[in-house]
Design goal:
It comes from Bacteroides cellulosilyticus. This protein is an alpha+beta fold. The protein is 25% helix and 33% strand.
Length: 183
């Protein structure tokens, strides 16, 4: 069950056996930089995903708050559980994309939350926020190592492209997808 606190914060109640756990999705704050960067890199290591020419080695991964909040048509949200950052996702007007297209960026979750519909709720929220910012399309880059995430994108109506769009600088990615979000 997802509960909207305000337009930028959502509370998700996840049932874990006999216990209902509360997870908060909120805008990134500067204090979150170190923790979300560590989580992103840990996921890359967990799945043995490419570490060069990817988010793993991108210096902006260490400064997500600054990257997103200096641009008026970008946003990034973190997933917080028990005062720890356990996930995140955002959208950004990546260089080289059409002005009505944003890239879904740095979408990663701790193993603690996978398979509990938290990723789906987070992606839905980010899509809504991108739409409110005037975007008509969302683009995403990924790797075969993240097959469960790619399956989520497919279920959310992203379609595969033959080649990359824009210039994210993450040239190691081999999966490129796009979705129309406004008719």
């Amino acid at each position: 069950m997802t509960q909207e606190i305000n337009s930028n914060i959502r509370i998700i109640h996840v049932i874990n056996g006999p216990i209902t756990e509360t997870i908060t999705i909120r805008p990134i704050e500067e204090k979150d930089n170190k923790e979300i960067a560590a989580l992103i890199r840990k996921v890359f290591e967990e799945f043995d995903a490419p570490k060069t020419e990817s988010v793993y080695s991108d210096p902006l991964t260490d400064r997500l708050f600054q990257s997103f909040y200096q641009h008026p048509r970008a946003g990034y949200w973190v997933v917080e559980y028990n005062s720890n950052i356990v996930g995140g996702c955002g959208f950004y007007p990546t260089e080289g994309l059409d002005t009505d297209c944003a890239e879904i960026v740095k979408f990663y979750l701790s193993p603690l939350l996978r398979g509990k519909k938290v990723g789906s709720a987070l992606l839905n929220m980010v899509e809504e926020k991108a739409q409110e910012s005037g975007y008509k399309q969302l683009y995403i880059e990924s790797f075969p190592q993240f097959q469960n995430a790619v399956s989520l994108y497919e279920r959310k109506d992203f379609r595969h492209l033959e080649s990359r769009l824009g210039n994210s600088g993450h040239t190691a990615t081999t999966i490129h997808m796009i979705k129309n979000i406004q008719e």
